[in-house]
């Protein structure tokens, strides 16, 4: 499998994390005053200030009580393994870019002590220790950091090595659109941030709805082919990218029977004759134009090929809190004037 595909998912169709299915920042949570934790204005005098102080103390104590009741916590990860946390984790290693972004979007970026090589958002995580990738993890480094939680991909065997070393490991698989919200809630529970997770879910859904509403104004629904790498690997309609294609009012040429991230033949694409092609790897434009017979494909003839690399690829390829920004790229691509 080419280098691009190897970064995506082992022994199967590529998956966004790990390079993942491989900007305007993460979606911020509302400030505390808007969440109802603190009053928006002080009281009228000393008694009002005392009341404000008491409310803050009570709010803080209620949070502590909720955490005390939530832990020890026993959950089941995406491998079906039972994972137990005695207390909210304070030292976390994230080995998937989308997981890194989700932990930060939950307000727990300061708990991360290391990430995989590809995590690069938000900007602050670039300075963190890097512990390898899906195929070249550095378990010795991870163990030396003494994390109380390591978040890994369900693919690969890193979890086995770390578990033998006595670390607490939670395996994640985020491949469908609904998996995005399932993962947000799971991580929120693990971190003792369930309320923040619900707010983040609502925020992501609101952003996605805004892009869907924009797409709904378009008159047509073009046939779309999405190419992850030149193998070529693509996306099925039930993958998270496939759902984004539908929300952007595109029609995926790949049938669901082929799976979430299938490998296909160039002849299949030629037969389906897509009106728009989206590709997410360097040099894609030249690769696509040079394929035998592809000059007869409508998208190639009309120049409707959208290539996204670097930061834009991350928006499309990572099933995390910035997914609405990836959807925005697709809406713009499918419905250019």
TrEMBL record:
Residues 91-337 form the Fe/B12 periplasmic-binding domain. Residues 1-25 are annotated as: Disordered. This is Vitamin B12 ABC transporter, B12-binding component BtuF. The lineage of its organism: Bacteria, Thermotogati, Deinococcota, Deinococci, Thermales. The keyword Transcription does not apply. InterPro entries: ABC_Transporter_SBP, ABC_transptr_periplasmic_BD, Vit_B12_bind_prot. It comes from Thermus aquaticus (strain ATCC BAA-2747 / Y51MC23). Keywords: Membrane, Signal, Transmembrane, Transmembrane helix. The chain crosses the membrane at residues 57-75. It comes from the Bacteria. SUPFAM superfamilies: Helical backbone' metal receptor. CDD domains: YvrC (cd01143). NCBIfam families: TroA_like.
């Amino acid at each position: 499998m080419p280098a691009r595909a190897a970064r995506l998912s082992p022994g199967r169709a590529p998956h966004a994390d790990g390079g993942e299915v491989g900007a305007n920042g993460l979606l911020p949570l509302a400030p505390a005053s808007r969440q109802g934790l603190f009053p928006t204005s002080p009281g009228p005098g000393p008694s009002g200030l005392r009341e404000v102080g008491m409310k803050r103390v009570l709010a803080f104590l209620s949070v502590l009580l909720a955490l005390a009741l939530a832990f020890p916590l026993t959950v089941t990860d995406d491998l079906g393994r039972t994972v137990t946390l005695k207390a909210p984790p304070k030292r976390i290693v994230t080995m998937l870019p989308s997981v890194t972004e989700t932990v930060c979007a939950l307000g727990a970026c300061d708990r991360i002590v290391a990430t995989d090589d590809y995590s690069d958002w938000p900007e602050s995580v670039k300075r963190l220790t890097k512990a390898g990738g899906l195929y070249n993890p550095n378990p010795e480094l991870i163990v030396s950091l003494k994390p109380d939680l390591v978040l890994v991909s369900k693919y690969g065997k890193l979890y086995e090595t770390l578990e033998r070393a006595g670390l607490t490991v939670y395996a994640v698989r985020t491949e469908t659109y609904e998996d995005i919200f399932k993962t947000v809630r799971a991580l929120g529970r693990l971190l003792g941030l369930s309320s923040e997770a619900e707010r983040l879910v609502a925020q992501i859904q609101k952003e996605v709805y805004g892009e869907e509403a924009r797409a709904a104004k378009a008159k047509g629904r073009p046939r779309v082919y999405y190419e992850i790498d030149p193998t070529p690997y693509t996306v099925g309609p039930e993958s998270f990218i496939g759902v984004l294609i539908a929300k952007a009012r595109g029609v995926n040429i790949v049938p669901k029977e082929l799976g979430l991230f299938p490998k296909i033949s160039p002849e299949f694409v030629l037969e389906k004759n897509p009106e728009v092609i989206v590709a997410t790897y360097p040099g894609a434009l030249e690769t696509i134009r040079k394929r035998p017979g592809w000059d007869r494909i409508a998208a190639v003839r009309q120049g409707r090929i959208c290539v996204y690399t670097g930061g834009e690829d991350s928006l499309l390829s990572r099933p995390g809190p910035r997914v609405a920004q990836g959807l925005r790229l697709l809406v713009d691509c499918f419905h250019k004037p």
